[in-house]
């Protein structure tokens, strides 16, 4: 935590930040992250996995939950109404994405 060329082995403002003894110390309660306790000194390392958190599990892109869907940006977004822009059918209430618009467009 000490920047280059500092005189102390460790900055006082960094004491205890992300410190851990075992992997469980790093749990952020997000099922879409992998947590490890690594290095010297031991620090928490969080790796974001693809997906969205839902009821203590990590679900894949396109998963539906009520009026929302897990986007390819790994976030929950509200479903879209007819004529709104879309790339995938699961984004739309109608379940149809034609010509990059929700609903049947002819």
Topology summary:
Elements: E1 33-38, E2 43-48, E3 52-54, E4 57-59, E5 64-65, E6 68-70, E7 76-78, E8 97-98, E9 101-102
Antiparallel strand pairs: 1-2, 3-4, 5-6, 6-7, 8-9
Please tell me about this protein's structure.
The chain is built from no helices and nine strands. It has 106 residues and is mainly beta. The mean pLDDT is 86. A hairpin with a 4-residue loop joins strand 1 and strand 2.
Question: What is the structure about, briefly put?
Answer:
The chain is mainly beta and 106 residues long. The protein contains no helices and nine strands.
Features:
three-stranded antiparallel sheet, 106 residues, mainly beta
Give the SSE order as H and E letters.
EEEEEEEEE
Proportion of residues in β-strands: 25-35%
- Whole-angstrom Rg: 21 Å
The main β sheet shows up as: 3 strands, antiparallel
Q: So how many helices?
A: 0
Distance between the termini: 60 Å
Oligomer: single chain
**CA-based shape:** rod-shaped
What structural class do the secondary elements suggest? Answer: mainly beta
Average predicted confidence as pLDDT: 86
Largest beta sheet: strand ordering: 5-6-7
Low-pLDDT stretches are: none
- Strand runs, count: 9
The percent range for helix content is: under 10%
């Amino acid at each position: 935590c000490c920047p280059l060329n500092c005189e102390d082995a460790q900055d006082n403002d960094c004491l205890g930040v992300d410190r851990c003894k075992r992997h469980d110390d790093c749990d952020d309660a997000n099922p879409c992250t992998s947590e490890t306790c690594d290095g010297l000194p031991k620090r928490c390392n969080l790796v974001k996995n693809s997906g969205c958190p839902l009821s203590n599990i990590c679900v894949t892109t396109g998963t539906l939950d009520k009026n929302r869907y897990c986007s390819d940006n790994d976030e929950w977004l509200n479903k879209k109404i007819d004529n709104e822009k879309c790339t995938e059918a699961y984004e739309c209430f109608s379940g149809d994405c034609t010509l990059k618009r929700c609903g049947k467009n002819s």
